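Thread title: Can someone regenerate the structure for this chain?

I was given the following input by a collaborator and told the matching structure tokens would be attached. They weren't. Posting the sequence so someone can regenerate them.
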Amino acid sequence: MISLVGAGGKTTLMFLLAAELAGRKFRVVTTTTTKIFPPQPEESPLIVTGETASWPRIREALRRHGRLTWVAAWGPQGKLLGVSPAALSRLWSRSWVDYIIAETDGSARKPIKAPRETEPLVSPETTIFVSVFGLSALGQPLNQASCFQPERISRLTGFPPEAPITGDLLTRLAVHPLGGLKGWKPGMRAVCLLNQSDAPADPSGLPGLAEHILRQAPAAIERVVLARLKPEKHFTVIRL
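Best answer:
Regenerated them for you:
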């Protein structure tokens, strides 16, 4: 079970992972414990069942398509309303599901965020915890235009409002137990994914940023991934 938190590419990552896993003949359910926009037809079939799922319907769709997106209901503004961690636990107990990938918090399409008190909603069965950050935030001011919950980011990192977003700020946010690691529990494999690696004017410092994040949280974060999920997927994995 893969839980995605943070900002700057969670939905794109979720459907890319699902496509790759389904291509390897694994049965994959994508979902959310918050809200997401509906997937495009080429991204995933969609099943809306309510909180109490129709397991035979989901099982048959997985058999036919290899992957699907399961949500509880349609919500306002065209979004899909997710299911609870308890519902994910019930699905996880079914032997005919190989992978569950769940978005567990929202970010209002900003590149970085700090979670609110009530998020993320991470299932306790999570095996891989992925915290996502958008590198397009680097150099931007710490405010509502470039961040989700900038006042919380300021409190967690010690950087004042409107300060330029630097690698040091990003590192402090990524390793903070109430920031990028909120929702992580010992036993979960934690991955920090730095998306939009083509955004900085000078990307030469990004491997150093990745190594710095690892050194600051060696007991929690297993690896850091530098990624460019759009327009074409590209990954560089940093491990010490």
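Helices lie at 10-23, 55-65, 85-92, 150-157, 167-175, 206-216.
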